[in-house]
């Protein structure tokens, strides 16, 4: 049946999309926490997209066979005639007529769809629309009826919207809630223009594989897909990319499955803590290898040393990071997944490429950077502008590691700190800025006041400080250590002192000169307990 009776034909451009989604959110605003809006809105948008596309396919089959009754009988017998099968009671037109027990009805419907279409399992059946807390419904039937009505305003069929319009809806909601909900929302969100730049840098080729161990809502994987589709028509004979992601939070993992499904991506999304329990393994129990890794892990995450010491996959061959920051733990985890010619782009805190350099003595992060430079693995570092990410004003960097560098013993440093436009509440990279920095990297060129090519020997002379601002000065140089880095260095020094004290007491105990105390540093709770967050997946100091 046509939905023309309750859905107009307006085009969903970016502005219209935003207004529509915000209208939907406002209908349930106040009844539930803002960060929970997406948990109810997105599955319903997904359901409507499925229903509208199914209706389009039904119309095509009726045109071929002439009778709707014949088509209904055929697809009931053979679900493969359509991309996914929707029983009559799961179609949007039926849903809009439901006025009683709506929450339970929607919950039953999405679970039924997952049974009928196994590919949708874990994506569409993620929310209990009838859920209660303290004996009260989280979202009432009345609100669900209003929400369904608002979402009925636009068709989301094959010819109604662009292929990635629903993914952009997800981005919009994440961004909107990040603006108003503080750091916890920002943890889930990588600004889309940063993700586009990373997709441009990785520049996928036919048949390659892409992995994100902190995939969040799947945004970085999707930007690789969009970059690939910009280069190669979907109708061409080029081999498609294959995508793999792991996400710690079950609900966010479901969102990622939904997102990649709507983008027609051949993707496998796993649930679990990828640092302690990596899911993508070979038949021999070794880490699976991928051509590309793209990720934005939580910045300066804290892991117990046992995470590294007890590793069974030989990931941390260049050294153990300190307790104060797992940045280089994540880098080594990702690099271990690369093929012999693999490459990766990862977003990190700016201090990850400079901390410890020039301080004298030994420093774990600096020593790991040294190992990576000496092994000629670091290809480029891109300094991003300030105030792009939603729970910090810190700029961040993109670190590019390449096991088969195009220019051995060289490192391209790009200072993109000025490549932005002011926005409210956050700055943003323009399309021109993305193009400029992407071309500088792909064409490997030095540009006055933006990029410079240094040798690994020059990096060694600077004690392996790879901060682009050190080499590309846009104004008078300020050698003052940023407060955030100063605090980090203080914590690092305290950790080293605690470890030294512990070793001293162990030696004294062996000599019978004292009882061994238990160091608070070495008796912490399980590794992940100290960093209770979704590997932000996507979105650490940061879909």
TrEMBL record:
Chain segments carrying region Disordered: 516-543
Coiled coil residues, start to end: 483-510
Its EC number(s): 2.1.1.72
MF terms in GO: DNA binding; N-methyltransferase activity; site-specific DNA-methyltransferase (adenine-specific) activity
Catalytic activity: a 2'-deoxyadenosine in DNA + S-adenosyl-L-methionine = an N(6)-methyl-2'-deoxyadenosine in DNA + S-adenosyl-L-homocysteine + H(+)
Top-level taxon: Archaea
Keyword Transcription regulation listed: no
PANTHER family for this protein: SLR6095 PROTEIN (PTHR42933), TYPE I RESTRICTION ENZYME MJAVIII METHYLASE SUBUNIT (PTHR42933:SF3)
Designated name of the protein: site-specific DNA-methyltransferase (adenine-specific)
């Amino acid at each position: 049946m046509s939905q023309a009776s309750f859905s107009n034909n307006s085009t969903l451009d970016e502005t219209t999309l935003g207004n529509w989604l915000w209208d939907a959110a406002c209908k349930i605003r106040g009844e539930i926490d803002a960060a929970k809006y997406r948990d109810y809105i997105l599955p319903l948008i997904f359901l409507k997209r499925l229903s509208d596309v199914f209706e389009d396919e039904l119309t095509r089959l009726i045109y071929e066979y002439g009778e709707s009754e014949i088509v209904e009988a055929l697809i009931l017998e053979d679900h493969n005639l359509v991309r996914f099968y929707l029983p009559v009671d799961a179609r949007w037109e039926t849903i809009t007529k439901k006025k009683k027990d709506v929450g339970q009805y929607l919950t039953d419907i999405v679970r039924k769809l997952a049974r009928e279409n196994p590919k949708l399992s874990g994506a569409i059946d993620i929310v209990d629309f009838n859920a209660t807390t303290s004996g009260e419904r989280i979202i009432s039937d009345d609100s669900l009826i209003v929400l369904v009505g608002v979402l009925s305003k636009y068709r989301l069929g094959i010819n109604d919207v662009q292929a990635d319009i629903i993914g952009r809806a997800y981005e919009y909601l994440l961004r909107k809630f990040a603006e108003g909900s503080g750091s916890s929302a920002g943890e889930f969100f990588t600004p889309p223009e940063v993700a586009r730049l990373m997709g441009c840098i990785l520049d996928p080729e036919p048949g390659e594989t892409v992995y994100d161990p902190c995939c969040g809502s799947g945004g970085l994987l999707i930007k690789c897909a969009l970059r690939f589709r910009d280069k190669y028509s979907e109708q061409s004979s080029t081999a498609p990319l294959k995508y793999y992601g792991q996400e710690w939070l079950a609900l966010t993992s479901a969102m990622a499955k939904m997102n990649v499904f709507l983008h027609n991506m051949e993707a496998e999304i796993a649930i679990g803590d990828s640092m302690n329990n990596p899911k993508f393994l070979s038949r021999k129990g070794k880490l699976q290898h991928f051509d590309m890794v793209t990720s934005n892990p939580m910045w300066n995450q804290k892991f117990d040393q046992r995470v590294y010491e007890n590793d069974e996959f030989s990931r941390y061959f260049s050294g153990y990071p300190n307790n104060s920051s797992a940045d280089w733990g994540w880098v080594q985890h990702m690099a271990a997944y690369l093929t012999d010619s693999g490459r990766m782009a990862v977003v990190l805190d700016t201090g990850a490429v400079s901390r410890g350099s020039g301080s004298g003595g030994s420093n774990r992060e600096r020593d790991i950077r040294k190992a990576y430079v000496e092994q000629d693995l670091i290809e480029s570092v891109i300094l991003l502008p300030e105030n792009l990410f939603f729970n910090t004003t810190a700029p961040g960097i993109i670190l590019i590691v390449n096991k088969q560098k195009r220019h051995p013993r060289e490192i391209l440093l790009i200072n993109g700190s000025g490549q932005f436009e002011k926005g409210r509440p956050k700055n943003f990279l323009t399309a021109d800025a993305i193009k400029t920095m992407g071309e500088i990297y792909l064409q490997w060129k030095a540009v006055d006041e933006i990029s410079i090519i240094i040798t690994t020997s020059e990096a060694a002379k600077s004690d392996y400080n790879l901060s682009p601002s050190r080499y590309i000065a846009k104004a008078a140089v300020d050698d003052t250590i940023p407060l955030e880095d100063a605090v980090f260095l203080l914590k690092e020094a305290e950790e080293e002192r605690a470890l030294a004290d512990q070793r001293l007491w162990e030696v004294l105990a062996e000599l019978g000169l004292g009882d061994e105390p238990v160091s608070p540093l070495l008796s912490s709770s399980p590794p992940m307990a100290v960093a209770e967050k979704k590997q932000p997946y996507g979105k650490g100091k940061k879909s």
